Amino acid sequence: MKTAHDIIIRPIVSERTMGAIAERKYTFEVARSATKIDIRNAVEEVFGVKVASVNTISVHAKKKRLSMGRPEGTLPAWKKAIVTVTEDSKTIEFFDSLM
């Protein structure tokens, strides 16, 4: 059985995700085998918030040109989760410190 820290790999920090924080939406890279229920339970356990909804996106592998000597390679596929917390729940402090 996976722990909550095995399910949530890292937060995704970009202009788009930082703009979504005003709507109480937080974005994470998660384990590819994680279900929406697993993600909900992991976020509630790690950050102590109440989750309203979870949306997931499977990001496909991409071909990339790498440095000299290697003409091309492939970036791995990964899974992204957009977690919306409830209005009466507290915010996630990690994202507050970035703003």
Question: What does the secondary structure layout of this molecule look like, with pairings?
Answer:
Layout: H1 4-7, E1 8-11, H2 15-20, E2 25-30, H3 36-47, E3 51-59, E4 62-64, E5 73-75, E6 78-85, H4 93-96
Antiparallel strand pairs: 1-2, 2-6, 3-6, 4-5
Mean pLDDT: 89
Helix content: 25-40%
The structure class reads alpha+beta
Rg value? 15 Å
Number of strands: 6
Mass-distribution shape: globular
Q: What spatial order of strands do you see in the largest sheet?
A: 1-2-6-3
Query: Which residue ranges are poorly predicted, with pLDDT under 50 across at least 5 consecutive positions?
Result: none
First-to-last CA distance: 35 Å
Major sheet characteristics:
4 strands, antiparallel
The secondary-structure element order is HEHEHEEEEH
Describe this structure in words.
This protein has 99 residues and is α+β, with helices and mostly antiparallel strands. The chain has 4 helices and 6 strands, in the order αβαβαββββα. It has helices at residues 4-7, 15-20, 36-47, 93-96, and strands spanning 8-11, 25-30, 51-59, 62-64, 73-75, 78-85. A 4-stranded antiparallel sheet has the order 1-2-6-3. A two-stranded antiparallel sheet has the order 4-5. β4 and β5 form a beta hairpin. The longest helix has 12 residues, at 36-47. The protein is globular, with a radius of gyration of 15 Å. The chain starts with a helix and ends with a helix. The model has no long low-confidence stretch (mean pLDDT 89).
